[in-house]
Design a protein that fits this description.
Oligomer: heterodimer
Radius of gyration of chain B: 20 Å
Helix content of chain A: 10-25%
CATH superfamily of the largest domain in chain A: Cyclophilin-like
Number of domains of chain B: 2
Mean pLDDT of chain B: 89
Low-confidence stretches of chain A: none
Shape of chain A: globular
Distance between the termini of chain B: 45 Å
Strand content of chain A: 25-35%
Structural class of chain B: alpha+beta
Shape of chain B: elongated
CATH class of the largest domain in chain A: Mainly Beta
Number of strands of chain A: 14
Largest sheet of chain A: 7 strands, mixed, barrel
Strand content of chain B: 25-35%
Largest interface: A-B, 53 and 45 residues
Chain lengths: ~240, ~350
């Protein structure tokens, strides 16, 4: 973690929130700690909270500011954090492994070759192999409903975001930057390179469980041809398989 | 079942209630009415539950009718409201309840100041809830704007008085926004925080349900120590992000849930309706308050909402009444409905 002495750090966020930060930049151990803390608090079911969430390196607790004293939540939180080595937190239990078919042909993944070159990889196949064999998980879900930040890719993929935004990538696009990927849940503009395309719909508001992914889920991408990908577009799950992680 | 028949619609017109809290971890912001006070005022005017769904018009326009007499209430930013029946058109007072006769046509057009106007219906709108709410969440892809030909089912209305008036709670025309410190406030240093509080910001023309940009009006941009390289964090409505060009950007009810821009402060939830209802160019100032003051402000706001039903008064049908004059004056207004002052395009700051 960034400066082990300074973390975990508790700070208020707005009038109704507390944030526990485990680092001030992305760090795999800090992400595991953020996921673990949220899972523990949810499992204990703290009645003073209305909602919890985790982001890349922090956990957020929300409460009713008029019904609950900030100091009381802060104190309970500090007690929970105390005396633990959070750099060694295990991932939450009950994680799932999702295997998601993805196309990497340039007609559906227009920046795969450019990204491979920027990463110093010999060719497209090497890039596909690297992405599809990496041990990946949902680091956090955010920005748009059901949309995961996925990591961490090998160091070669530490590519900066593009200066100019791509005006539009489709739902299901895989964007890549800073050793992470975003699997887009909505059509959007982005500074991340469009390196792959899936057929999965991560947010299905009318479904009994509207969100396909959960923070901490393990992910694997399975390379498929453009023709196979096209055949999967009728399936909201885009051909994804779900098993135990 | 009674229905409201939408005959024509322009701009961003949606069904809104209090939104769907609880999905922050899944990337979905609460959404709901941009001006929750207007929602409460409509419920008070019709004496129905505060969670009743209504129609929100973001500088939009609408004509609609009903097959059976239906109580309505008009709240939020004043719009030009008229009722046409039997070839005769008369203006309707804003901040008031009325009876919409069967076969009559209600017309709502943008008022002089823009902002969010609300049409409430007796019994509330009874479309099937999605994930616990009837609100459209445009950025998240839940529901969508209303279209001509839509028929909105209405809930059972136990009936009640109409022609009631309510002086709206003060929140129009800009003003002072109370805020508390946020995660990155200290990265700005005392000088910038002092400057934040004495800068007369103007509400920029860029604004929608996701966020509102504050125009610096020639003031020096704000810059956090350490630049922009902060790790993405969870953000919420009320957070004031400082974007790459040093301009404050206030996140609103339908905002994204994570952001990588530093947050200089967080506006109190009870003051966000002021941002929502400020017309482009309206002056907005920011005042940092301590936690005790913030909590007292929340308590006062909650009390003011609870008090609304006691503030209702009958509307006297007298041309001299201020509310009527307002309505008549608006009819003569010169707002061009084809050029709403809200710019409708994605205002996602800091996309991944």
């Amino acid at each position: 973690m960034s400066d082990p002495a300074a973390f975990p750090r508790i700070a208020p966020s707005g009038v109704d929130g507390l944030v526990v930060s485990f680092a001030d930049r992305f760090d795999d151990a800090a992400n595991r700690a953020a996921l673990a803390l949220r899972a523990e608090i949810d499992a204990e079911g703290w009645p003073e909270l209305v909602e919890t969430a985790s982001s890349l390196v922090s956990t957020v607790l929300r409460f009713d500011p008029l019904g609950t004293h900030l100091e009381a939540v802060e104190e309970r939180l500090a007690r929970h954090l105390e005396g633990r080595d959070w750099s060694d937190a295990a991932l939450p239990e009950g994680r799932r492994l999702l295997t998601i078919p993805a196309g990497f042909d340039p007609d559906v993944a227009p920046q795969i070759d450019e990204a491979a070159e920027a990463a110093g990889l010999p060719d497209r196949q090497a890039a596909i192999d690297s992405i599809c064999t990496a041990e990946l998980r949902v680091l956090t879900i955010g920005f748009a409903p059901g949309q995961p930040y996925i990591g961490q890719l090998p160091e070669a993929w530490d590519l900066p975001r593009q200066r100019s935004l791509t005006p539009r990538v489709p739902v299901g696009a895989l964007g890549l930057a800073i050793r992470q990927m975003v699997l887009f849940a909505v059509e959007t503009q982005t500074g991340w390179r469009h390196v792959g395309q899936t057929a999965i719909r991560l947010f299905q508001p009318e479904a009994p469980d509207p969100f396909v992914l959960r923070p901490g889920d393990a992910l694997r991408f399975e390379p498929v041809s453009a023709a196979r990908l096209a055949a999967l577009t009728d399936d909201p799950m885009g051909g994804a398989g779900i098993g135990a992680a | 079942m009674r229905v409201l028949e939408i005959r024509s619609v322009a701009g961003t017109v949606t069904v809104q209630d209090a939104g769907r809290p609880g999905f922050l971890a899944q990337g979905l912001s609460r959404g709901g009415a941009a001006d929750p006070v207007a929602l409460a005022e409509g419920a008070a005017l019709l004496r129905q539950p505060a969670g009743s769904a209504a129609i929100e018009l973001m500088s939009g326009a609408l004509t609609a009718g009903v097959g059976q007499p239906t109580r309505i209430a008009l709240t939020g930013a004043p719009m030009r409201a008229t009722l046409t029946e039997g070839g005769e058109t008369r203006p309707l007072a804003w901040h008031a309840s009325h009876l919409l006769p069967a076969g009559a046509e209600l017309s709502l057009k943008p008022g002089p100041e823009g902002g969010f106007g609300y049409l409430h219906l007796g019994g509330g709108i009874a479309t099937p809830p999605v994930m616990g709410s009837r609100s459209a969440h445009l950025a998240g892809g839940v529901g969508g704007p209303l279209r001509a030909g839509d028929r909105l089912p209405l809930g059972v209305d136990k009936g009640g008085e109409v022609d009631l008036l309510l002086d709206p709670l003060p929140r129009f025309g800009g003003g002072r926004l109370r805020a508390v410190e946020s995660l990155q406030t200290r990265l700005y240093g005392a000088e910038q925080i002092e400057r934040l509080q004495r800068t007369p910001f103007r509400r920029d023309s860029h604004g929608n349900r996701m966020g509102v940009r504050l125009d610096l009006g020639g003031a020096e941009p704000f810059a956090a120590e350490g630049g922009l390289s902060i790790v993405s964090e969870i953000v919420q409505p009320g957070d004031i992000q400082v974007t790459g060009d040093g301009t404050p950007f206030v996140l609103m009810s339908e905002c994204q849930t994570t952001g990588g821009y530093p947050r200089i402060a967080t506006i109190l939830p009870c003051d966000l309706p002021i941002v929502a209802q400020a017309a482009p160019g309206a002056e907005l100032t920011i005042r940092l308050v301590d936690r005790e003051t913030a909590l007292q402000a929340l308590r006062d706001a909650a009390r003011a909402l609870a008090d609304l039903p006691r503030r209702l008064r009958p509307r006297v049908r007298d041309a001299g009444q201020i509310a009527d004059l307002l309505a008549y004056n608006l009819v003569g207004g010169v707002v061009d409905a084809a050029r709403p002052d809200h710019i409708e395009h994605p205002l996602h700051e800091d996309p991944p």
